[in-house]
Write a structure and sequence with these properties.
Shape: globular
Radius of gyration: 21 Å
Organism: Scopulibacillus daqui
Pfam families: ATP-grasp_4
Structural class: alpha+beta
Protein name: Biotin carboxylase
Keywords: ATP-binding, Ligase, Nucleotide-binding
Strand order of the largest sheet: 13-12-9-10-11-14-18-16
Largest sheet: 8 strands, antiparallel
Number of strands: 19
InterPro entries: ATP-dep_AA_Ligase, ATP-grasp, ATP_grasp_subdomain_1, CPAse_ATP-bd
CATH architecture of the largest domain: 2-Layer Sandwich
Helix content: 25-40%
Length: about 425
């Protein structure tokens, strides 16, 4: 029996799609999780329903999982993780089992945002990107927060979290100190990941934000699509995206991304490179050595015909995968983020909105949801996906769908 191991997954369908594809290809799907209840908000294609076998184990402890594999005497043909926090354990297990996966040294450099910034400091001329000014803040040496001179606005963020958790745009010293004081009391993120006790204070770069969706092939890295992003609020929550081959913020973006990834010796899977464009110059925000979240792979598939999930799955299993562009469209997603505290019970007109021109999907998380304040992507409770020939048309269609939602909600006083 052919078997594949999934270490947790993300909550925006990518890992679930890979599970379904694995089963279609004849693989027995093992799903290891430290807490199955963290997937309770997923309405459809819940990984706990898709898996053939579920094991509750500490998925942050690679040594414990390797020991469990040895004791069970099960042969796996691939091991995958789709969220940031389990990329390293998956890479360590893959290496031990002689399976395809990331090199752990390269992975560590990009998973830890401070290491990425430090590594690029002396290599930035070779990377194809510019870098904002930055400073690492360690909990044990935080006194300089009160003494050093910072340039505002700046972005304060953890070195190893994602989904806008702990991120805050600070406009003065008081806001920076407040953000630090809140963050130093946060030891675990919503996925149970133990956070490192360091943060970055980065120069805020104004301008449009993009991401490059990359896949590794036998010929090296290839650009599949570019995504234009929209963010919301002081925590820079990603509230919408539109992806298309026609989005070209700079003409040589593929060459720049290839240089950047090669500089870190990354040679597996996918990459989601986030950058901002200021004065026609690309400023690097993050390198994510994985597929994008937020349903972006679904947007890419709709816009280009390329199934990035299938490509990554096949690569992990040692199966040859080619990139074939079969369509030239644009696809967009818009999220609903509540503006008022309350209990959101139901969106009443989903079927009506599905009839809107261009809309291909609209849905909510499992409701009811008690909303208090938007601090991260976990507070987004609905989304709409639309397609059109032009990026702006697709985004406007998704935006209208979300704005037209009628909610059954009991607002808090």
């Amino acid at each position: 029996m052919k078997r594949i191991l999934f270490l947790e997954t993300n909550t925006t369908s990518t890992g679930a799609q890979a599970m379904k594809l694995s089963k279609e290809m004849g693989y027995h799907v093992h799903f290891w999780t430290n807490d199955p209840s963290q997937y309770d908000s997923i309405k459809y294609d819940n990984p706990t329903d898709l898996a053939d076998e579920i094991k509750v184990i500490d998925t942050y402890d690679a040594a414990k999982m390797i020991k469990a594999i040895k004791n069970e005497q099960i042969q796996y043909h691939g091991v995958l993780a789709f969220d940031d926090y389990h990329l390293m354990p998956a890479a360590e297990i893959a290496k031990k089992l002689h399976l395809n996966g990331h090199e752990t040294k390269s992975l560590s450099l990009v998973r830890n945002k401070n290491l990425m910034r430090d590594y690029l400091k002396n290599l930035i001329d070779k990377s194809g990107f510019y870098q904002p000014k930055f400073q690492t803040i360690n909990e044990d040496h935080s006194s300089h927060l009160y003494n050093d001179n910072y340039e505002f606005p700046l972005v304060f963020k953890p070195i190893d979290d994602s989904g806008s958790n702990g991120v805050r745009i600070c406009h003065n010293k008081n806001e920076l100190i407040e953000a630090f004081n809140v963050e130093k009391e946060r030891f675990l993120n919503p996925r149970g990941y133990k956070l490192q006790r360091s943060w970055l204070a980065e120069e805020y770069i104004s301008g449009d934000e993009y991401s490059a969706e990359m896949l590794y092939t036998k010929e090296g890295w290839k650009l599949v699509s570019v995504t234009l992003k929209e963010t919301y609020g002081e925590h820079a929550i990603e509230s919408g995206h539109v992806s298309s081959k026609s989005i070209k913020p700079i003409p040589d973006i593929e060459d720049r991304c290839i240089k950047l990834l090669n500089l870190f010796n990354l040679d597996f899977g996918a990459a989601h490179i986030e950058f901002k464009l200021k004065d026609s110059k690309p400023y690097l925000i993050e390198i994510n050595p994985r597929l994008a979240g937020d349903y972006i792979p679904a947007l890419v598939k709709t816009a280009t015909g390329v199934d990035m999930v299938e490509h990554l799955l096949k690569q992990s299993l040692g199966i040859d995968a080619k990139i074939n562009f079969s369509t030239d469209e644009s696809a967009a997603i818009k999220f609903f983020i509540p503006k008022r505290p309350g209990i959101y019970k139901k969106a009443a007109n989903l079927k009506e909105i599905m009839s809107y021109q261009g809309i291909i999907q609209i849905d909510t998380v499992n409701l009811p949801v008690h909303f208090t304040q938007a601090k991260s992507s976990y507070e987004r409770i609905a989304f709409a996906i639309a397609k059109a020939k032009r990026p702006e048309t697709a985004f406007k269609a998704a935006e209208k769908a979300i704005s037209d939602l009628r909610w059954d909600v009991s607002y808090s006083n």
